Amino acid sequence: MMTERQDIAARAREAAARGQLRGIACALFIEPCGGGFVAEDQVMLELKEGRILAYVATTSNGQGHETVLPQIVAAKLGLDPARIDLRASDPDGPPVRGNGTIGSRSTLAQGSALLRAAEVVVEKGKAVAARLLEAAAGDIEFDDGRYRVRGTDLLLSFDAMLAGCEPGVLDTLLTQPVPRAFTIGAHVAEIEIDRETGHAALPPREPLRGNTPLAFAAFLVGVGSSKHHRPERPGR
């Protein structure tokens, strides 16, 4: 439910008439992410027939790796994410070592490794672009999927560079130490507490208001309800 604090006094009075205490609850959290049991994570980017194969050791079990990780690579290379094929724990792919998914480490660990691998691909591509543009490699810049000779209007798309590149030249295996971080945040909700039992619950859902996209807001409401609702104990 999306709380509108200016109206909470009226809602609190209505709840009191039903024997409920109504107010704002705030819970802070700190959550470790990253880490793992293996000291290093590896990823590999292979450029093959106009597509980029991204090999990682982790396997999604609901986190959405197949969406997020290709987007990270595509954003750096200036390509459509649909051209990035994620190969997770592929037995037919190159041997890459690393940690499992666990729960909250893949984007930090594998995602950052893929970003660095994409940066290496860009740097390797500068040498190819310099040859094709007949310029010094030190004068080549890259932005938004295009190589440019600094200070000129000479441009070369990533695809054009790729077409003029020998197979395998841009392939990149990257190894990095396992990163660790501690994320922080807060959950805020309007709740009701039963005076007699002490049971806390989210109030009945009210119409969503404000600028939050409705689909996302509805998702948040559903998650909040499923995570915070607790059934009454027998005998209460």
Explained architecture:
The protein is of the alpha+beta class. The chain has 2 domains: 5-32 and 182-228, no CATH class; 40-178, Aldehyde Oxidoreductase, domain 4 (2-Layer Sandwich). The chain is 31% helix and 29% strand. It has a 4-stranded mixed beta sheet, with helices on one face. The chain has a 3-stranded antiparallel beta sheet with strand order 1-9-10. α2 runs parallel beside α3 (106-133). The chain is elongated, with a radius of gyration of 25 Å. Residues 211-236 have low confidence and may be disordered.
What's the helix count?
A: 5
Average pLDDT metric? 85
N- and C-termini, Cα separation: 26 Å
CATH fold field value of the largest domain = Aldehyde Oxidoreductase, domain 4
Query: How would you characterize the largest beta sheet?
Result: 4 strands, mixed
- Number of distinct beta strands: 10
Strand and helix order? HEEEHEHEEEHEEEH
Low-confidence stretches: 211-236
Proportion of residues in β-strands: 25-35%
**Radius of gyration over C-alpha positions, nearest whole angstrom:** 25 Å
Count of structural domains: 2
Query: What's the CATH H-level homologous superfamily of the largest domain?
Result: Aldehyde oxidase/xanthine dehydrogenase, molybdopterin binding domain
Overall structural class, as computed from helix and strand content, comes to: alpha+beta
